[in-house]
Amino acid sequence: MALIPYEPFRHLENVRRELDRFWSNDFSPFDAGFAKGFGHIHTDVYETENEVVATCDIPGLEKKEDVHIEVDRNRLTVSGTVNRVNEVKEEHMHRQERFVGRFHRSISLPADVSSEGVTASYRNGVLEVRMPKLKGDSKKRIDVQFH
């Protein structure tokens, strides 16, 4: 019978992924205020053999200083501000649904990625972030020396 190393925090990673999935879904009670008020952005994440790719719908960005991207091993954080020039005077506005203001999204990634070599491009309201996977296994086995 093979021995399996005990990893006490292994189950916490599953809980974190489930919480990320829970909060990333659209909930009708929050649609009117919570999700839109805090700039919820819709994101797809997939992986290839060599990289993890995230695509985020963020319409309305005008310049690269409006978005900030941080990559930390297995977490991607995208934040920034959408500024829109009022095309119509406030008193003439009947409905305003397009998002204006700050947004923030932190996402668990399916694999550990390197912060070196990350590329990001923005086209037609979609931000694409490509992150190279870390080479090799990030776990290290330690041999015990018995005396």
From TrEMBL:
Family affiliation: Belongs to the small heat shock protein (HSP20) family.
Protein name per its UniProtKB record: Hsp20/alpha crystallin family protein
Domain of life the protein comes from: Bacteria
InterPro entries noted in UniProt: A-crystallin/Hsp20_dom, CS_dom, HSP20-like_chaperone, Small_HSP
Coiled-coil features, chain-numbered ranges: none
UniProt domain CS: residue ranges: 38-143
Pfam families for the chain: HSP20 (PF00011)
SHSP domain location: 32-147
